[in-house]
UniProtKB/TrEMBL annotation:
<dbReference type="GO" id="GO:0016832">
    <property type="term" value="F:aldehyde-lyase activity"/>
</dbReference>
<dbReference type="InterPro" id="IPR036409">
    <property type="entry name" value="Aldolase_II/adducin_N_sf"/>
</dbReference>
<keyword id="KW-0456">Lyase</keyword>
<dbReference type="GO" id="GO:0046872">
    <property type="term" value="F:metal ion binding"/>
</dbReference>
<dbReference type="InterPro" id="IPR050197">
    <property type="entry name" value="Aldolase_class_II_sugar_metab"/>
</dbReference>
<keyword id="KW-0479">Metal-binding</keyword>
<protein>
    <submittedName>
        <fullName>Class II aldolase/adducin family protein</fullName>
    </submittedName>
</protein>
<dbReference type="GO" id="GO:0005829">
    <property type="term" value="C:cytosol"/>
</dbReference>
<feature type="domain" description="Class II aldolase/adducin N-terminal">
    <location>
        <begin position="8"/>
        <end position="182"/>
    </location>
</feature>
<dbReference type="InterPro" id="IPR001303">
    <property type="entry name" value="Aldolase_II/adducin_N"/>
</dbReference>
<dbReference type="GO" id="GO:0019323">
    <property type="term" value="P:pentose catabolic process"/>
</dbReference>
<dbReference type="Pfam" id="PF00596">
    <property type="entry name" value="Aldolase_II"/>
</dbReference>
Length: 217
């Protein structure tokens, strides 16, 4: 079986996504790239009930290489992102807070400095029908500039990573940031970090900590 290890990993991540509420039912999809091949979740199958054999393998043009089931309808979006980013894996979610933000805003403001882990301010890709070239192009545009995640208007979220675990954790971080913002709005107007404050966070991360020597204490 081609990409056997990766297809098993898709099933593992699918169960995690369902268990943490990043998807419900047969929504959402996942893929992982192996050279010129992409293992992707099948369309119409609940992510926590897949088997490795359920997950088809396609080439970078979207042609089916192996598998009995049809690839996810969002495969064109996945392939578009592989063509314009350094992603080795992609996770597409229909999470609650991410979808709330994606239906009400054009971007997720930097409410927390961990926004920087996803490349900065999270853009909301313009709405387009799922599974279309238009949606793929819209998401590509929202991910420009080295972003690791984006939201999709009236749809959900997408995150990329250096491997499946990384993409999954980026998707979880995206949902956490959206959840913090939505809950903060229920209390009052959230304070948004300024560009200068974000720059200071970057500078701090590049500065190694200095600890006093024992004889200086």
């Amino acid at each position: 079986m081609k990409c056997a290890e990766e297809r098993r990993a898709l099933c593992d991540i699918g169960r995690k996504m369902a268990g943490t509420g990043l998807v419900s039912g047969a929504s959402g999809n996942i893929s992982v790239r192996v050279g010129d091949l992409v293992a992707v979740t099948p369309g119409g199958v609940m992510l926590d009930r897949m088997t490795p054999e359920d997950c088809p393998v396609v080439d970078l043009e979207g042609r089916l290489v192996e598998g009995e089931r049809a690839p996810s309808s969002e495969t064109p979006m996945h392939l578009a992102l592989y063509g314009c980013t350094d992603a080795a894996a992609i996770v597409h979610t229909h999470s609650t807070y991410g979808t709330v933000v994606a239906t009400t805003m054009t971007e997720l403001p930097p409410i927390h400095y961990n926004t920087l882990l996803l490349g900065g301010v999270i853009k909301v890709a313009e709405y387009a029908t799922y599974g279309t070239p238009e949606l793929a192009a819209s998401v590509r545009a929202a991910m420009e500039g080295g972003k690791r995640a984006a939201l999709m208007a009236n749809h959900g979220g997408v995150a990329i990573g250096k491997d499946l675990d990384d993409a999954y954790e980026n998707a979880r971080l995206l949902e956490w940031l959206c959840g913090v913002y939505v809950r903060a709005k229920a209390v009052g107007e959230p304070r948004i970090l300024t560009e200068d404050e974000l720059v200071q966070v970057i500078e701090r991360s590049l500065t190694p900590p200095v600890y006093p020597r024992r004889d200086e204490r």
